[in-house]
Every structure is written in structure tokens, then in C-alpha cells.
Design a protein that fits this description.
CATH superfamily: Aldolase class I
Number of helices: 7
Number of strands: 10
Largest sheet: 8 strands, parallel
Order of helices and strands: EHEHEHEHEHEEHEEEH
Radius of gyration: 16 Å
Strand content: 15-25%
Helix content: 25-40%
Number of domains: 1
């Protein structure tokens, strides 16, 4: 079974095309004003429309209100919502019921005790994203280029729901991360950027090639 790839934080149509050409299965658009990868509704709509058929389009939001999510879902053709804030399990269920879209919930990990929180979301989310917990005081909940200790996942009994490994992945380390954790899905954002918030098509290809081995 091959490992699936999500390229997150895309802002340009040529990078959506590069992700598809490289073999990625998902592309992510960030709706969070503090992020250097934030996109407007109009830009995201154009990006989503440009995406080839079969490439899953994911909206990343952080503690978004119903009004904010309404606007995103109404304007942007999407396949999945990614909740990357402090949304509770109950909020995950609310979002699923309101929009009828699959929901991926991100959970930050820094130490073994953080893994317990994942179990609470497994019963309500359609997918899980296991990310590095942001440092204290960080402005961004993700996309900080930080990895957690992958040994925390090595040899453990995995979750019933599909899950995705994220946090500090690059073309240079993703093969090792997959080997160590057994991840069948990986997510990258800053690791395929030439400068902060600006994707690099060559790095996107290198990342996908590294995943394919």
C-alpha cells in the first residue's frame, strides 16, 4: 500500500498543479488570518476549481465560527474540512452535521501523554492529523516546521480511523518518518517552501518522490 500525500498551505494554481503532477492525493487551503499561507475566499475558490478531478481539496480552519465556515463552504468547492484549533469532540460532531463533509481533526503531540487526547477524537472525526504541538506562545497552531519524536508512534497500536502524520516533514526526512511510524498518510506545508509561505514546485516533487521511495 502506498503512502498518501497532502500538500497544505497552497496559494497559487501552479503549485496545485505541481502537487497533482507529483502524485499528491490532497491539497490544503488555509483560512487563518495569522498564517502566511492564509488565502481569501475568492483565491481559494479559484484554486479549488483549478484542481484536477480526483485531487481532494481540504480547508484548514482554526476555531472557526459557524458564520466563517458557512462562507467557506458556500464559496469554495471542498472535499473535507480540517479543524486545526482547540475544537472539542462535540464541536467536531456539530461541524460534520452542519456541512455533511468529512472532518479531519488535528491533534498536537509533544510527549507520550498527548496521545491520549487523540482517542477522544477518534470516535467523532473521519480522519486524524497527528501534528507537532506548537511551542508555548506560538502564533500558529501548525506550519511551524517542527517535528515531534516519532518514536512515540513506533510500534503502538494505531487508531481505527485513517490518520495523517504532520509536523516538520521535509523531502529529506519523510522516508525515515514513514518507516519509523508506519504512517500511510503524510502532510507537509513549510517543508516544501522556498521561503516562508511560498511553495516550491521542485520541493513538492522531491517530497512526493521521497514518499514513493
Amino acid at each position: 500500500m502506498s503512502t498518501r500525500v497532502k500538500i497544505c498551505g497552497l496559494k497559487e494554481a501552479n503549485h496545485v498543479a505541481a502537487a497533482a503532477a507529483a502524485g499528491a492525493q490532497y491539497v490544503g487551503f488555509v483560512f487563518f488570518a495569522k498564517s502566511p499561507r492564509n488565502v481569501s475566499l475568492e483565491a481559494a475558490q479559484a484554486l479549488a476549481i483549478s484542481a484536477p478531478v480526483g485531487l481532494a481539496k481540504v480547508a484548514l480552519t482554526v476555531n472557526a465560527s459557524d458564520a466563517e465556515l458557512d462562507a467557506i463552504v458556500e464559496q469554495v468547492p471542498l472535499d473535507m474540512l480540517q479543524l486545526h484549533g482547540k475544537e472539542s469532540p462535540a464541536r467536531v460532531l456539530e461541524v460534520k452535521a452542519r456541512y455533511g463533509l468529512p472532518v479531519m481533526k488535528a491533534v498536537g503531540v509533544a510527549e507520550a501523554s498527548d496521545l491520549a487526547a487523540i482517542d477522544a477524537y477518534e470516535d467523532v472525526a473521519d480522519q486524524l492529523l497527528i501534528d507537532a504541538k506548537p511551542p508555548k506562545g506560538a502564533a500558529l497552531p501548525g506550519g511551524n516546521g517542527l517535528a515531534f519524536d516519532w518514536r512515540l508512534l513506533a510500534g503502538r497500536k494505531y487508531w481505527r480511523k485513517p490518520w495523517m502524520l504532520a509536523g516538520g516533514l521535509t523531502p529529506d526526512n519523510v522516508a525515515e518518518a514513514v518507516k519509523m511510524t508506519g504512517a500511510r498518510q503524510v502532510d507537509v506545508s513549510s517543508g516544501v517552501e522556498g521561503s516562508v509561505g511560498v511553495k516550491d514546485a521542485a520541493l513538492i516533487k522531491a517530497f512526493c518522490d521521497a514518499v514513493k521511495g
